[in-house]
Amino acid sequence: MRAKVTVYPRREILDPQGKAIRTALQRIGFAEAAAVRAGKCFEIDLGALDPQAAAERVAAMCEQLLANTVVEEYAIEILGEAPTGAKPARGTAS
Amino acid sequence: MRCGVVLFPGSNCDHDVYHVLKHVLEQDVVYLWHEETTLKSCDFIVLPGGWSYGDYLRGGAMAALSPVMQSVREHAARGGPVLGICNGFQVLTEARLLPGALRRNRGLKFECRDTFLRVERNDLDFTSCYRQGQVLRLPIAHGEGNYEHFPEELERLEANRQIVFRYVSPAGEEDDAWNPNGSARAIAGIVNEAGNVLGLMPHPERCAEEVLGNMDGLGLFQGIVQPAARLVGAAR
C-alpha cells in the first residue's frame, strides 16, 4: 500500500512563494495562471496495511509531522495495488 | 547559574550564545547535544539559531522531535526558563511549546539587517532589565520569520499579553514599513502563558558585548542569569 500526501499553505494565508511563481508564469506568457499555490508532496510506502488503516496512519503522520496545521492543510490519497482511485481522508484540502 | 545551549545538527549560533553566557556574563555553560536525554542539571536552556537538520520539511520541524526536546519540554513544564532564538524560536513553535508558526518572509528574501523592537512588557524575568516600551536595536538573519496564527489565536496572544517584542520604527511606532518579514501584528517575539518560554527571531547574542558596538541584546540574558541587574522601582 502506498499513500500520496500533498501539503499546501492554508488558503487564508498569504503564500508569497506561490505568488512569485504566478508572477513568473504570467511574465513568460501564461496570463491565464490566475493563482498558484506552492506546496509539498510526499509518497509513502506503507507495506501491507489495508486502505482504511493506511488512511488513519497517514492522517496521524500529517498531524504530527508532515504538515504544520497552523499554516498548512493536507490531502491524502491512498494508492493501492488495485486501481481503486483516490480516497480522501480527514483534513483533505479539496 | 548553569546554562545549557542545545546543539542540533546544523545549529550555527550556538557558540555566540555560549560566549555571551560564559565570557560576558561569567556563567557556568554546557552544550547539550540533541541526542541527550537529560539537561545535565541546567537551570536555563537556550535553543540557538542556525539551520537545524538543514531546515528539512520546515524550519525547526525535525529538531522539535529530537530526544533532547523531551527533556526541554519537562524543564519548561516545571517552570524552567527556555529561550529560543531564530531557528530556536521555530523549534519551539514546532514543538508546540509556543503557539503559532513561522513562515517564509513576505518579500521572499533572506533578511539580514538591524531591526527595531519595542519591549511590550517588562514584567517577565527575560525583559526585566529593559524599560517598558524601550526600543531595542537587534539584528535579524532569517528567511522564515513571518509569524502566523489563526485570527482568534492572535487575539488570544494580545489578550494574554504574550507578545513581548514587536517590530517598530526607530522611534518606537508601529509602521508596516519597519516590519521586515510580514509577521502578523508585527510580532518579533512571544512568550508562553506561564511566562517562562520565550522565542524571538532577532539575535540578542549578536549585540551583547561592548566591542560589537551594540549591547541591546545583553539584557535578555541578564534578566535570567543576573537577577541583580533587573530594573526595580521607578527605573522600571
What is the secondary structure topology, with strand pairs?
The complex is a heterodimer of chains A (94) and B (236).
Chain A lengths: L1 E8 L6 H12 L12 E6 L5 H16 L5 E8 L15
Antiparallel strand pairs in A: 1-2, 1-3
Chain B lengths: L1 E6 L6 H11 L3 E6 L10 E4 L19 H11 L4 E4 L1 H8 L6 E3 L7 E9 L15 E8 L3 E3 L2 H9 L3 E6 L18 E5 L5 E4 L17 H8 L11
Parallel strand pairs in B: 1-2, 1-3, 3-4, 4-11
Antiparallel strand pairs in B: 5-8, 6-7, 6-9, 9-10, 10-11
Describe what you observe in this structure:
The complex is a heterodimer of chains A (94) and B (236). In chain A, 30% of the residues lie in helices and 23% in strands. Chain A has 94 residues and is of the alpha+beta class. In chain A, strands 2-1-3 form a three-stranded antiparallel beta sheet, with helices on one face. The two termini of chain A are 22 Å apart. The model of chain A has no long low-confidence stretch (mean pLDDT 88). Chain B has a single domain (2-235), classed as Rossmann fold (3-Layer(aba) Sandwich). Chain B contains five helices and eleven strands; from the N terminus they run E-H-E-E-H-E-H-E-E-E-E-H-E-E-E-H. In chain B, the strands form two sheets. Chain B has a nine-stranded mixed beta sheet, sandwiched between helices. Chain B is globular and about 45 Å long. At the A-B interface, helix 1 of A face loops of B.
